[in-house]
Design brief:
single chain; about 200 residues; alpha/beta; 2 domains; 4-stranded parallel β-sheet; two-stranded antiparallel ribbon; about 10% strand; flat
């Protein structure tokens, strides 16, 4: 995207006003954290549940008192540039804080991993790529982009385009497989679908 002179001047003006802490904050991405009256970190609670040191009933009781922290105070302080999430109401609330309650009013980038659809769920990438159908790749990406925008998501972490040469890797199924030619077709069609046809 090429900036107009007016846009470039606005960016330069905002950058000149930003503190080092705010510039670093723009590179910070937060996701909701579970907080509650736990004596141990949440990850340890999960471990305790998994290995039998904590009963399911007790875990559920503890979780019923928990809430999500969306880092509103860090956003107000200009220390967050991006948040992960797919809840449109929460995205709007957080965006309003960023634009109306911060010193510089810089909007948040809302990101999410829309790897095989958002509300409409499509086959995983390796299965979809097996169809060798570029029009299908593009259409599923177009639908995912439309749903993502409706949910306030402006940054999709997909598609994952990697040449999967080692099946031990845990994310092989999120890409189009091991064939570089098919992967390039898949990537081109997915990006065209996600961004729209910009060839005009």
């Amino acid at each position: 995207m090429k900036l107009t002179n007016e846009q470039r001047a606005k960016v330069e003006s905002i950058l000149a006003q930003m503190t080092l802490e705010e510039k670093i904050g723009q590179m910070n991405q937060e996701s909701p954290s579970i907080v509650g009256g736990f004596d141990v970190p949440f990850s340890e609670l999960i471990e305790m549940l998994t290995d039998g040191r904590l009963a399911q009933e007790e875990f559920e009781r503890l979780m019923s008192t928990a809430k999500q922290d969306f880092h509103e105070e860090e956003i107000r302080a200009g220390l967050v540039g991006s948040v992960m999430g797919n809840d449109p109401r929460k995205a709007n609330e957080l965006q309003k804080i960023a634009v109306e309650e911060t010193r510089l009013g810089i909007p948040l980038i809302i990101g999410f991993d829309v790897i095989h659809g958002l509300r409409s769920v499509f086959p995983i990438a390796i299965a979809e790529a097996g169809s060798f159908d570029d029009a299908l790749f593009e259409e599923t990406a177009r639908m995912a982009a439309k749903e993502s925008r409706a949910h306030g998501i402006s940054w999709n972490f997909a598609p994952m385009i990697d040449v999967a040469r080692d099946s031990r890797w845990g994310r092989v199924s999120e890409g189009p497989g091991e064939d570089t030619y098919l992967g390039s077709r898949f990537a081109r069609a997915k990006i065209r679908g996600l961004q729209g046809d910009t060839s005009d």
